## 1
Amino acid sequence: MKGSRAWFMLLLSLVAGIAAMVLAARWLNEQSLARTEAHVVVAARDVELGQPLNASMVTLVPWPAGSVPEGSFPNLEAIDGRVLRTQLLRGEPVLEAKLAPAGTKGGLSAVIGQGRRAITVKVNEVVGVAGFALPGNYVDVLVNTQDDRERPVSKIVLERILVLAVAQEASRDDTKPRVVNAVTLEVTPGEAERIDLARSVGNLSLVLRNQVDRNEAQTDGIRKADLLGDVPAPTPPAAAAVARAPKPAARPVVRRAPVASAPQDTARVEVIRGVQRSSTDL
């Protein structure tokens, strides 16, 4: 009798332990679900900058409540029609910092920063850094012109200028070089004036720079004399030929005795009359 009672108590303890474990697991699961009750709007596919968002481009996914990104959106209605300022990859949260102000229309104008302007510069394969100046890169602007004394000079006029677009493309996910005939730059109003004046007085070139390099170039420009150094002025060809020609040897001066002048004949007139002859000196 005592043995049966002991087995019964043991079985009851085992059932109570299993029940406690089940209840504890359920409680932990509920707590875990409570921590993931937040939802965040993320990109359903890759979206290029300048495009207005709609329901087909985004989706709502669960997100841990303790790690919700700052500036994220909890519902799809909050981002409907908003325009992207940067490219958005699939699964990436949609943040306020990546969107243009509400009411902005799509296109390149939505990408331009506050107080900035966009200006297009005509380029070729050389000026455009062989096509490596892509959207999102930074360039310096170089002008080749003449100074006040009409001497050739080359000078950096603008530094760390953001490339907004090449030709009609503003995508920043492409790393393959593209040779185009126009590059659009983001500048301030004052920088836009400098570029406009520079391209009217000389030829522009773009200089690709490191993305994280913010150091300013302290240069005074370079002129032809600086490039070639101290080179003597070239001698004209005619003067050089005369200088190379051998000089004739000096001849001795021979002094001759003066020659006496021969007496001049006196003119005479002779008159004959019959057998008489007479002459008269002139």
## 2
Amino acid sequence: MESILRIGPFGLPDATALAVTLLLWLGIGWFIEHPPAKHPSVSMLMVRYRREWMRQFVTREPRIFDATILDNLRQGTAFFASASMIAIGGGIALLGNPSMVLGLARDLTLPTDATGFQVRVLLVVAFLANAVLKFIWSHRLFGYCAILMAAAPNEADDPMATFRADQAGEVNITAAKSFNRGLHSIYFALGSLGWLLGPYWLLLTVGVTSAVLIRREFASASRQIMLRTLTPDA
């Protein structure tokens, strides 16, 4: 029975912890993008503000303000993509030569199986690789959004002005969605580091990661600010 529950260097606790991690990653990502109608997430609230941004952009003079904001968004995606690639390089270096870390693990009485260590690091690298792909696509989409904004006519009463603004808004929303997915992968990459200490630590760290994501999307102070509406003075 023990041989059935153990695959290579991993046992049932490892397999369970890995399955829970992947399910939480996929499930929380889906829930954030498809929240209850009466309790939207921060990401969904920002969808409304992005559409409003593009509607205001049509009549704003000068439009350099909008270009500056979009450039800042692109710089953010480029920064996270670069940082993730550097982290992937460090992870690959550990996969190729784990002896130094394993020596430290022996001193700390942690799991020291070389194959098991490499697979655990591989999970972190996989999350980071997914993040890089999301950030790169987000960066490209923000570029598309900039072109659509530039294609909007200067005359606000031109029918194409609103049409181009709506197009730019939808592309901007898609870019933000990809960026958020990249951030979620980074969160889970950090949470997956707990697996280096063992499967129960992985369950703990991804549980904390999930709680942080849920709180920031559904119970943060910034969300309450976004939900405020203009009310007349009493």
